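The protein record reproduced below.
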Amino acid sequence: MASQDKIKKLIDLRAEAKLGGGEKRIASQHKKGKYTARERIDMLLDEGSFEEFDMFVSHRCTNFGMEKTKFLGDGVVTGQGTIDGRLVFVFSQDFTVFGGSLSETFAQKICKIMDMAMTMGAPVIGLNDSGGARIQEGVTALAGYAEIFERNILASGVIPQISAIFGPCAGGAVYSPALTDFIMMTEEKSYMFVTGPKVVKTVTGEDITVEDLGGAKMHASKSGVSHFMLEDEEEGIMIIRKLLSYMPSNNLEEAPILECNDPIDRMEDVLNEIIPDNPNMPYDVKDVIYAIADDAEFLEVHRHYAKNIVVGFTRMGGMSVGVVANQPNFLAGVLDIESSRKAARFIRFCDCFNIPILTLVDVPGFLPGSGQEFGGIITHGAKLMFAYGEATVPKVTITLRKSYGGAHDVMSSKQLRGDMNYAWPTAEIAVMGAKGAIEVLHGRKLAELNDEEKAKFIEEKETEYNEAFANPYNAASYGYIDDVIEPRNTRFRVIRAFQSLQTKKQSNPPKKHSNIPL
């Protein structure tokens, strides 16, 4: 065969591989409002940067006549490219080939780029659209999943791992995304569950739709499995690119510092008036975040889940910062099981990848009730405390208003190695609020008084208690608060604190690993 013929054969094979399952199946994918595996990669990566690996791989299965049907690439497109000029590795499952089902060779392709990502210290992005394990391959498909899971585990905390669910993801397939750092799902076009509606119906008798059992809305708001709920795939691609801009490529690097044109000493007079005079009145803590962030930009994570705490990424003085903030607008900002888990996971991600943490505190305590106690609030609340106490990245804490009881300790207090702990003049740092404290301290006396005397006595004692404790100065007198700052100057004080902490060096005692209360 002449050289030109060989080159023509290569070009023809490449064209065949790029067609995946064929034009008919590509048209079917488009009809569902979904992009193909290759289209997704083209949208995600910098133009012209994608370098594909293993394009000519095909399956080796001979069961059930499978040897008669083979496709180049075997249902997954893998390779490397760049996002904003930074190296990333990506795999994109191709639903047009055997429904994107995983085979032994399919898994080997994914494992290869994950190994390369670890060697190079670059993020891995998985674009999922798969019917699950390829049944015809039997146990080799299951082994393939386990090989991927092990790599997810070993890569955790070493390189960022992001999963986008753009179609089905069921059975054992769900555990690879579950082991990654961030999951996002498209509304009405994606789902995740361990067992589908038919099995649920057979085993439990429960009738439930695919969307209600494992849709994007459910996982974003109820289970917390998904960090982002997407209107469409384009939004998902944009969020992946934005997320990576806040992260280093691996745990040995720092997150990129961008040029900041927003003055670091910008005063925000609105912050001097944002806290209501009535301590029981809510306000939106996100208004505080937008006011102090560079160019009012904030990428919220887990927006629909555990809304009583807000987490996400922003920049301050060009530096990437992870924000954790109690949300008085929802359940008064109280800590509960879901909010503790949500914040703890986010804090641990930031600590893995050297991203400083800003904590905004306005917390009346932990949510009381049998539901919380039966659900293990003690263990789940301890996760949040553990995450803060274990973190060695720079930690700046601002107490905006309430900081009561055990929740005060948990929210990055000085004793949990908070580096800079500031408070606004509106801060109230105490074991509990005035009303509850008076009932405990003066319960016997109150029982002896009539209603009129009781009201007068409570008013007197509440005033006394508030003067003694419902302010930041008592805590400041012990050095638990480093400074009481004017709210409008918060941006400048936080940025200066993080700048001074850039050379912070802190390590935990040598150990195999910690035993966080899971």
